[in-house]
Design brief:
The complex is a heterotrimer of chains A (334), B (368) and C (375). By secondary structure, chain A is mainly α. Helix content of chain A is 69%, strand content 0%. Chain B starts with 28 loop residues before the first strand and ends in a 7-residue tail after the last helix. With 375 residues, chain C is of the alpha/beta class. Chain C folds into two domains: 196 residues, P-loop containing nucleotide triphosphate hydrolases (Rossmann fold), CATH 3.40.50; 97 residues, no CATH class. Chain C has eleven helices and twelve strands. An eight-stranded mixed sheet of chain C has the order 6-7-8-3-9-10-12-11, with helices on both faces. Chain C has a four-stranded antiparallel sheet with strand order 2-1-4-5. In chain C, α4 crosses α5, α4 runs parallel beside α6 and α5 packs across α6. Chain C starts with 5 loop residues before the first helix and ends in a 27-residue tail after the last strand. Classes of the chains: A mainly alpha (334), B alpha/beta (368), C alpha/beta (375). Chains in contact: A-B, A-C, B-C. At the B-C interface, α7, α8, α9, α10 and α11 of B face α7, α8 and α10 of C. Chain C: Belongs to the ABC transporter superfamily. Chain C: InterPro entries: AAA+_ATPase (IPR003593), ABC_transp_ATP-bind (IPR050319), ABC_transporter-like_ATP-bd (IPR003439), ABC_transporter-like_CS (IPR017871), Oligopep_ABC_C (IPR013563), P-loop_NTPase (IPR027417). Chain C: Keywords: ATP-binding, Nucleotide-binding, Transport. Chain C: GO terms for molecular function: ATP binding; ATP hydrolysis activity.
């Protein structure tokens, strides 16, 4: 290996945007956020994945409307369309003009409308969990980073503690215990309760990464001169946090938010898959995939539709998150 | 592959008695009509636009300019350190009789560090933090002396450290950059640049990050080393004071072009370009009336993407109107301005400039 | 742009003065120290930073170690010195961005050394700071209007005519186009950004501004613009300045009094004429002679100091400059020289002060006493 630091540094100097960064002077008042939007608009991946996400969200929001137009509910069973073994009649899992994605073997429920409602559940859980974790993370991270001292030490300690807890084991142990605590051995568990427990579990484990990110950013900003200028003018905690600090870190927060959502979607599916998530009654990706695995050989369409939907959703989210990061911080992509 | 350039010996000052068969007469470095363009998202940046100069061995050329004047880009082009994908370089750069523009990257790299070396402004970022200072210097030596052993390279590095005025060089050899003070780091940087006896040394703002008392030491050191090694030096700086101390010749750059060139005496004592006047009159001086206002250059340095038409200095020039539209439409070429070898790129006539200088400039700031 | 705005600026400055909330006596600012009550009185000011050394050890960096100085109303005091001399730390303590370890800071007779945020609130309006880095000192997410209005907003001040009018007036005072109210910092050049920082510092009509290397990050041609602007503001608005800089030539053009610092101590303080024409501390002399002088070509004779500034972690005993001083004797290592007045406003902390005018170019090299030009 030839060690020639001089060359390396010289090249690095040139890489960093070149010695002469031209300045736009002819443009009036383009804010950094607006510039990021313009960059995002220019990015084709961002536009395509963003369009897909928008489409999925509209589907989820309009689920009752779609149910009305489609004419079939998520709990309706079509036993008459199943054969003696409980398998849907017709080709590829019973796909027909009435049942676009076919029927579930066994219960005979319509896969399409269950997918739409499953999307609704998944997105609701993921967004709710992401909003809660982001809020928790921002609040704790900002307090730890800006105030420092013993508060920082305590929050750091709790963060480390949380990270040390095994997520799956706790989720496996906690969910049934909670359910038993609120409902009896034989009582039917309400779907809303299952959703709330899932969101709660995600919130408890998910806030640490955002908190760490925000804390680091705040510590870096705290020493910047514009923050000191506000301090020298006598600004209080509220002004410092909401006017000076947060506007400068919303970009990484937004990126971490957009990457947390798909993570929660897959986590929800995984938990439902191993049976600690939602009950069978609530339509969800995880339950559908779990049930469909028994029919992998006999009815591949049952696996295919939920599988491809969850894949497309998570893929689009991740692509969009990356594009967003590039648009907000153009240096990282070079 | 290539033979070692200097006989590896304990005497760093020892130059090979028979230098390579390159022309020993004439300037060591000749830059002719150098143009450097970068393609960026926002358009083409003409960072250097037709610059020519020569430097002889044993002489120092000071290149003066503000940020964005193209002075650093020029030096990086000479060293071949630009990213080839986004950069277009045309013109001629000849070092010791060898044409560099268009030479394969591999060959330029062989010259770099051996025939020419660079001293950077910030030694902390130019030195690798995880290797000892001595190891980095020894490594720089071994890159160009493949036959040299570890022990020999170490000896050479210790010698160089001693030569640049670092006390206890053998002990300092095994220390890391963070254990050096700012001045010592810059000395180590110089030792590394000079370890292969380069004939051309480019120093890019070598003292800007240093305190004045340390700056004085470093400037003295460079002068001493030049007397000893007889190398050609290019000193890139924005500080006219530094130029007045070390330079033999001066090139003033503005917006990627040379606006004035001449001996240090000519450029600082009988400056001919209004931009040079502006620089001289805006620098506060240690002498004269401290209560008088400085005479700044109005406006801001231009953007290289959107350079003003004609003479790029005309929007900031107090005398641009004296030539009708000429300053706005026609790019002035470097032309002789009185003294021998004194060139200036300005549309004003020599007589007019002399008169204006006497009436408006000669009594303010350091131009006094 | 600069030239054409001169007239408008003057008018705005006059308005600024006429609307001064305190009816300050319109006395002419005199260069010579007057007997007036000092605006700022600093006594024994010190700041020690604890640093971890090794595995468990902790030691103190004595960044600032006992400063005494006064600033009178409308006076400009320059704090000069090399890196590590504590000048920036001092500036930050004056505006209370850092908590002093020891000593007192009095502003208009009130002790503000350890005042809390609420007690400081009325003082914030009188005491402002301008930063060195024009890129780091403006919030990139705020418009220029919001940046300049920040001190007003934070202190709940509603200026007559509204915030916007006030901000535009300030933009005019510092020589920027008031129409640029809604632009963002990244759309301005370094010099223009520094003007925005100055406008922000002026927003509360302070009596004292701490300027921390306000021009050293700027291009040469822009430095002169900003120095001229600060001089004009100082004259027109009768502002007092603590001007922190390493460039002695700039300080000479801006300051009426100068304090030279070395390793956390003031080694010499005096009127500008004294410091530049009759410096008495060896360090002041060395500093002055180390400045490359454009008016002299070639390496002129200089006092060459050897070595670097020692670390403030372990400063030399006695006189801190003795390790680099060519006059150092035994007493310098054992006894710390006090800052004593030598007539006039000049005070020197040295056992063997120099006398006579600056030797100029007939200097010696390291370790050799400068040959004084004897008349």
């Amino acid at each position: 290996m030839s060690l020639s630091p001089v060359e390396g540094v010289a090249l690095a100097e040139i890489e960093s945007g070149g010695p002469e960064v031209p300045e736009r002077k002819d443009v009036v008042g383009r804010s950094p956020g607006r510039l990021a939007w313009i960059r995002l608009r220019r990015d084709r991946t961002a536009m395509v994945s963003g369009g897909m996400l928008l489409f999925f969200m509209l589907l989820a929001l309009a689920a009752p409307l779609i149910e009305m137009l489609y004419g079939i509910g998520p709990k309706e069973q079509f036993q008459s369309l199943l054969d003696g073994f409980g398998m849907p009649l017709g080709y590829s899992g019973g796909v027909s003009g009435d049942h676009w994605f076919g029927l579930e073997p066994g219960l005979g429920r319509d896969i399409f409308i269950r997918l739409i409602y499953g999307l609704r559940t998944s997105l609701f859980i993921a967004f709710a969990a992401a909003v809660i974790t982001a809020t928790l993370g921002v609040v704790l991270g900002t307090l730890a980073g800006y105030l420092g001292g013993w508060l920082d030490a305590v929050i750091n300690w709790i963060t480390d503690l949380t990270l040390a807890m095994p997520f799956l084991v706790i989720a496996l142990a906690l969910t049934p215990t909670l359910v038993l605590r609120f409902y009896g051995e034989r009582e039917a568990v309400s779907p809303a309760f299952g959703v709330a427990v899932l969101i709660g579990v995600f919130a408890i484990f998910g806030w640490t990464s955002t908190a760490r990110l925000v804390r680091g950013q705040v510590i870096a900003l705290r020493e910047r001169e514009f923050v000191e200028a506000a301090r020298a003018s006598g600004a209080g905690l509220g002004h410092m946090v909401f006017r000076q600090l947060l506007p400068n870190i919303w970009a990484p927060i937004l990126v971490s938010f957009s990457l947390a959502v798909p993570q929660f979607i897959t986590s929800e599916a995984a938990l439902s898959f191993i049976g600690v998530g939602l009950s069978d009654e609530t339509p969800s990706f995880g339950r559908m995939i779990y049930r469909s695995l028994d029919y992998l050989q006999t009815d591949p369409a049952y696996v295919f539709f939920p599988g491809i939907t969850i894949f497309a959703l998570v893929f689009a989210f991740n692509l969009f998150g990356d594009a967003l990061r590039d648009a907000l911080d153009p240096k990282s992509s070079r | 592959m290539d033979r070692p350039k200097s006989v590896p010996s304990g005497q760093p000052g020892d130059r090979p008695s028979v230098p390579e068969q390159r022309s020993t007469s004439g300037p060591y470095l000749r830059v002719d009509d150098l143009r450097v363009r970068f393609d960026t998202e926002d358009g083409v940046v003409r960072a250097v636009d037709g610059v020519s100069f020569t430097v002889e061995r044993g002489r120092t050329l000071g290149i003066v300019g503000e940020s964005g004047s193209g002075k650093s880009v020029t030096s990086l082009a000479i060293l071949g350190l630009h990213n080839a994908k986004r950069t277009t370089i045309t013109g001629e750069i000849s070092v010791g009789g060898r044409q560099l523009v268009g030479l394969p990257e591999e060959e330029v790299r062989r010259l770099r560090g051996r025939d020419m070396a660079m001293i950077f402004q910030d030694p902390l970022s130019a030195l690798h933090p995880y290797y000892t200072v001595g190891r980095q210097i020894a490594e720089a030596y071994r890159v160009h002396h493949p036959g040299a052993g570890r022990r020999e390279a170490r000896q050479r590095a210790v010698d160089m450290l001693g030569r640049v005025g670092i006390p206890q060089p053998a002990r300092r050899f095994d220390q890391y950059p963070h254990e050096f003070s700012g001045g010592m780091r810059q000395r180590a940087m110089i030792a590394m640049a000079l370890v292969n006896d380069p004939d051309l040394v480019i120093a890019d703002e070598p003292t800007t990050a240093l305190d004045v008392t340390v700056q004085a030491q470093i400037l003295d050191l460079l002068a001493d080393l030049q007397a000893e090694f007889h190398s050609a030096i290019i000193m890139i700086t924005h500080d006219l004071g530094v130029v007045s101390q070390v330079a033999d010749d001066v090139l003033v750059m503005y917006g990627g072009r040379a606006v004035e060139r001449g001996s240090v005496e000519q450029v600082l004592r009988r400056p001919q370009h209004p931009y040079t006047w502006g620089l001289l009159s805006s620098v506060p001086s240690l002498h004269g009336d401290a209560d008088e206002d400085l005479v700044p250059i109005r406006g801001n340095p231009p953007s290289l993407i959107n350079l003003p038409s004609g003479c790029s200095f005309h929007p900031r020039c107090r005398y641009a109107d004296r030539n009708g539209d000429r300053s706005r439409t026609e790019v002035p070429q470097l032309r002789p301005a009185g003294g021998e070898g004194h060139l200036v790129a300005c549309h004003l006539s020599t007589e007019e400039r002399t008169r204006l200088y006497r009436e408006d400039i000669a009594h303010v700031g350091v131009a006094r | 742009m600069w030239g054409s705005l001169g007239e408008r600026e003057e008018r705005s400055a006059a308005e600024y003065r006429s609307r001064e909330r305190r009816q300050a006596p319109m006395s002419e600012v005199s260069v010579a120290p007057s007997a007036a009550e000092p605006l700022l009185r600093v006594r024994g000011l010190a700041k020690h930073f604890p640093v971890r050394t090794g595995f468990r050890g902790q030691s103190l960096v004595r960044a600032v170690d006992g400063l005494d100085f006064d600033v009178r109303p409308g006076e400009t005091l320059g704090l000069v010195g090399e890196s590590g001399c504590g000048k920036t730390t001092t500036g930050r303590m004056l505006v209370r961005l850092l908590e002093p370890t020891a000593g007192t800071i009095e502003f208009e007779g009130r002790d503000i050394t350890h005042a809390g945020r609420r007690q400081l609130r009325p003082l914030r309006q009188d005491l402002q700071i301008i930063f060195q880095d024009p890129y780091a000192s403006l919030n990139p997410r705020h418009t220029v209007g919001r940046i300049i209005a920040m001190p007003l907003q934070v202190n709940g001040i509603e200026p007559p005519g509204g915030v916007k009018a006030r901000v535009q007036e300030l933009l005019e005072i510092v020589g920027l186009n008031p129409e640029h109210y809604n632009r963002y910092p990244h759309e301005f050049s370094g010099g223009q950004r520094q003007r925005i920082g100055i406008a922000r510092a002026l927003a509360l009509r302070p009596k004292l501004i701490v300027a921390d290397e306000p021009v050293s990050a700027l291009d040469v041609s822009i430095q002169a613009q900003v120095v001229n602007l600060l001089r004009q503001l100082q004259r027109d608005l009768e502002l007092a300045f603590v001007f922190i800089a390493h460039d002695l030539a700039v300080v000479r053009h801006f300051c009426q009094r100068v304090a030279v610092m070395y390793l956390g101590k003031i080694v010499e303080i005096g009127d500008r004429v004294d410091i530049y024409e009759r410096p008495q501390h060896p360090y002041t002399r060395a500093l002055l002679s180390a400045i490359p002088d454009v008016t002299k070509l070639g390496p002129g004779g200089r006092i060459r100091l050897t070595g670097d500034v020692p670390t403030p972690l372990d400063p030399p005993s006695g006189c801190r400059f003795r390790t680099r001083c060519w006059k150092a004797q035994e007493i310098c290592a054992t006894e710390e020289p006090a800052l004593v007045s030598r007539g006039g406003g000049q005070a020197i902390a040295c056992h063997f002060p120099e006398s006579g005018p600056v030797a100029g170019e007939s200097g010696g090299t390291a370790g050799v006493t400068v040959e004084e030009v004897s008349k």
